[in-house]
């Protein structure tokens, strides 16, 4: 699997959210520890979320394909022998 990477802007936003969470719920955390925490989550926990997203996408696509097959069936015309 390809490594999960974020743009500078995304990383800054996520780090800001991590710091805000720690400030509210735990002890305040600096930007560098928050960035390390983000890297840890992306590397160690990110694949679980990524794989879940793939399974959800596959299930949604499968449902859409079933509906498409039904719609195609409805377009069939009777034929006379």
Give a description of the structure.
- This protein is mainly alpha-helical and 81 residues long.
- The protein contains two helices and no strands.
- The chain has helices spanning 8-25, 31-75.
- α1 crosses α2.
- It is rod-shaped and about 80 Å long.
Essential attributes:
81 residues, mainly alpha, 2 helices, 78% helix
Topology:
Elements: H1 8-25, H2 31-75
Helix pairs in contact: 1-2
Low-confidence stretches: none
Number of strands: 0
Secondary structural class: mainly alpha
Oligomer: single chain
Arithmetic mean pLDDT = 91
The percentage helix is: over 70%
Largest sheet: none
Shape call:
rod-shaped
Please tell me how large the radius of gyration is: 23 Å
Distance between the termini: 55 Å
Our count of helices gives: 2
Q: Give the SSE order as H and E letters.
A: HH
Strand content: under 5%
């Amino acid at each position: 699997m390809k490594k999960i990477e974020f743009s500078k802007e995304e990383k800054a936003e996520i780090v800001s959210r991590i710091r805000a969470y720690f400030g509210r719920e735990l002890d305040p955390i600096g930007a560098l520890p928050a960035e390390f925490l983000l890297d840890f989550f992306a590397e160690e926990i990110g694949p679980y979320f990524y794989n879940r997203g793939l399974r959800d996408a596959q299930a949604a696509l499968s449902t859409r394909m079933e509906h498409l097959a039904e719609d195609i069936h409805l377009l069939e015309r009777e034929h006379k022998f």
